[in-house]
Amino acid sequence: MLKIKLSRTGKKNQPTYRFVIVEARSKRDGKCVENIGNFQPQMFPPLICLDKQRYDYWINQGAQPTNTVRNLYKKS
Q1: Domain ranges of the chain
Q2: Which residue from 22, 14, 21 is spatially nearest to 42, judged by alpha carbons?
């Protein structure tokens, strides 16, 4: 089963995140199938760059977003 998760990147105390498609049981920062965007919470307002076409494609393929990803998608 595939999941759409946030993978953390960036420096210490300056997180940035990537929206990634991964296997449900894989590690948070492990190998991903595809990177579909990024999220920068430190900016004001927080910057959400998400490829909505690829997001919808993976949802149609059966990927399940986490609650956080689902809420960020609604905000973008």
Answers
A1: 2-75
A2: 14
Peptide linkage before 65 cis (omega within 30 of 0): no
Q: Is 90 exceeded by the pLDDT of residue 64?
A: yes
Give which of 18, 65, 59, 15 is closest to 41, Cα–Cα. 15
* Tokens linked to 69: 């990803």
- Report residue 16 as tokens: 């940035």
pLDDT at 42: 94
Q: What is the CATH T-level fold of the domain 2-75, as seen in this structure?
A: S16 Ribosomal Protein; Chain: A; (3.30.1320)
User: How far does Cα 5 stand from its chain's mean position?
Assistant: 5
